[in-house]
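[Archive record]
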Amino acid sequence: MLNSGCSARVVTVSPGPLIRVEGQPVSIRCDVNDYEGPSEQDFEWEMSRDAKGPTIKMVSTFDSSFSDPSLSKRVASGDISVVRLQDNEAELKIAEVKSQDSGFYLCRTTSTDSVISGNYEAQVQLK
């Protein structure tokens, strides 16, 4: 691979699979590196029951109406939330994980790059 001096966006999440007991808290970190644009990046979290299945919108750092209606009570109560840790890092928090939370969690960043390069999302499994 040739290095042209250009960087490529890299999105990473906590390594998995993550294994949690029902009723316990879970936190999944997501960060982005080697990007262009503003230092503060935005994050969206989605989940699906299986790796390639349809996703349910959970929470976003920039859109308060992002969440799927099926999760609105849990988001409003703070059971599901997103916390910005740094300009390029956010954390999905579930205060009390439920059995139906088992699945694949996808962290996505919006593009602020002049050229699309690298990955804009990363996924981890929660059991």
